[in-house]
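Q: What residues go here?
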């Protein structure tokens, strides 16, 4: 038996003979991380454009656990905002009406300077 068939060149397709396929869309990686980065940049732009002016928001404490050290405030527009116990200027409990400012946090928007109305 001859081994010459292994050394023979394989036929190749000409460029015009190849099927044209659309490039596959790359899945977005770290979509949540990209969102957080954009959010932080937006807050940074806002604070630089109006450094002495922060909008005071109002809402109702939906959940708060003093033992766990955090809770959530529901804004008047229905959005929920995380609040850490270190951001309180007065003691709060569930159903209290509060005012607060917003600031970027590690996982999204946080309420800061929270006080009872």
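A:
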């Amino acid at each position: 038996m001859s081994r010459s068939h292994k050394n023979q060149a394989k036929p190749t397709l000409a460029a015009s003979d190849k099927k044209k396929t659309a490039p596959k869309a790359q899945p977005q990686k770290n979509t949540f991380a990209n969102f957080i980065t954009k959010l932080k940049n937006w807050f940074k732009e806002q604070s630089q454009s109006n450094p002495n002016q922060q909008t005071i928001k109002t809402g109702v404490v939906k959940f708060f656990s003093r033992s766990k050290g955090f809770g959530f405030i529901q804004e008047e527009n229905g959005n929920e905002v995380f609040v850490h116990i270190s951001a309180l200027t007065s003691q709060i409990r569930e159903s209290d009406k509060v005012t607060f400012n917003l600031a970027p946090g590690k996982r999204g928007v946080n309420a800061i300077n929270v006080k009872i109305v």
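A: Context that may help when evaluating the design: The chain is about 20% helix and 30% strand. The longest helix spans residues 31-49.
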